Amino acid sequence: MSKFYEVRRRDGAARIGILSLPGGKKQTPLLLRIDSLNAGEVIINVIHAEDPLFKELFKEDRWDVSRGAVLLPEVHPLFTKMKEAIPSLFVDFFVLSFASNLLNSPRDFVRRIIDARTTIPPDVALWVPAIATAENAALLFYIGADIIDDTNAVIKGYQGIYLMEEEGVRLSELDDLPCNCSICSSLSIDELRHKNNKERASLIAKHNTLLLDKEVKKIKECIRAGNLREYVEMKVRASTFSTAVLRILDMEEEEYFELRIPVARDQGIKANTMESLKRIEVKRFAKRVLERYEPPERKILLILPCSAKKPYSTSPSHAKFIEAIENYRGHIHELILTSPLGVVPRELEAVYPAAFYDIPVTGYWDAEEREWVSSCLRAYLEWKMNNYDVVVAHLSGAYREICASVAEDSGIEIVYTCEANEGTTSRGALNKLKERIAELCGDKQRLSGFEMKSSMIKAMADYQFGIGAGSELVARKEGEEERIKINGKFPSFKLSSKGDVLARIVPEYGLLVLTVKGARRIENLLSLYKVEIGNFVPKGSILAPGVINAGEQIRANDEVVFCGEKAFGVGKAKMSGWEMVESRRGVAVQVRAVEER
Ligand SMILES: [Zn+2]
């Protein structure tokens, strides 16, 4: 069945793909016109989920027998009619049964779509029929539907409900037609009102469908750009139902999305809503700071506020902080306090998403935001407090309040170098920072350029591949006369040994990229990010069928190492590891460099 659907691009659970139908190739996210079903463009087979055949379908030896299945037919009377009309049927995607029931409860909406999505293979399309509107379409694709249709839009039209991006209204409630579609621009609202019932219903239905069509196009662009999450956060505001759906997804379906959200991308995160705090990227970062990060050995922990410009070091405020502590930086470990990421160690400031988020800065922090950031700081201090002799906080306003409350809870004493209502970059505050740091450190110790660069590369390697990978990568090896070299301008550092590049930081993605030599150097530590391939030498890309096994931790855009009988190389994952194993189609790894064995 999978040979009829190929996912080309992903944005979390949402996908852009190519679906081969009897009527020609179609791109998903797809809006099916129910008319086209009658025209025979789509052929449907009816198999109940309860039917023993349903489970059979997923057995590999049956895959060439069937081209897919409809989960249940009752959702739309058309389907059963078609079954009678065309006896020898097969289909090209899966249809979620009784989908119209989903609109009764946000929890059912979530549960049923996710259950369907996780039951069927990743490389087949899922059709959620008869419920889409311009208001909920983004949410449907965000959860993992690939196909919707115009049934609901048409039915609403026949009920006299005029759909808008956010909601549906009766024609009588409108003073004008707030739309520029071909229908709405061809007549006035009075002309529409005076049409006979049938004609009016048909015109509203057409407008509703055109609006839905426009919405699907917009969603496709969001997936392409990688910002569907931001769009969904904005869209759900229009209805309590959709807001509830997103809340349930964020609270209860973390695992489902964690398996699908890319590890990095070239798009920033716009954290403009409270839901942004719940994003997988935010939770994943906070988790990895505790699990895949080892702070350098320094006696002083300095907590600093974030800056709008990223990486923080490139901002005017951080330039001032760094200047103030410059002579003693070798004694200091810097930790940046921020929302929604919590705490960002200086060495990880170029990592995705630390260098890729934006928040509205007003000085006002919501209770939930405070609680989340506090919990990150508390967890860090409880975990690593023993590393330090003293904690200095150069914070004011809400940052300082958060820090103070965490310190009180954890019984930690903090040296403040800034008053609660004082600007952190004011001359007075900076002088205090400089003086206190000098007092606490005693002897001067600057941070060498090499130390700064190597600690950053080490931290990024640990963050991406797991603890241990970093120190192995930057350590001098036996037989190496000189230590490794690091060149480049912040943060585009390049690590090399004996003239061979081992790794470099790619700031556009917030990732560390390994060369084949670099991967060889830490091969034994890359097991989580290893893709085992068949007996061939890949060129350009490795397709999913060529993958024998892949690390479960791999997510789209992860840097991976691949190896097979004939080849060893490095590349970028284009799908999650589990998807590489389960898929029969699509690019699994984009090859960067390969060595024949
Ligand atoms: Zn219109």
Nutshell version of this structure?
The chain is an alpha/beta fold.
Structural notes for this entry:
- The protein contains 20 helices and 26 strands.
- It is α/β, with parallel strands linked by helices and 597 residues long.
- It has three domains: 2-252, Alpha-Beta Barrel (TIM Barrel); 269-441, Uracil-DNA glycosylase-like (Rossmann fold); 457-596, Archaeosine Trna-guanine Transglycosylase, Chain: A, domain 4, CATH 2.30.130.
- It has a six-stranded mixed beta sheet.
- Helix 4 crosses helix 10, helix 6 runs antiparallel to helix 8 (197-225) and helix 13 (316-325) runs parallel beside helix 16.
- The protein starts with a strand and ends with a strand.
- Residues 43-91 have low confidence and may be disordered.
- The protein binds zinc ion (ZN).
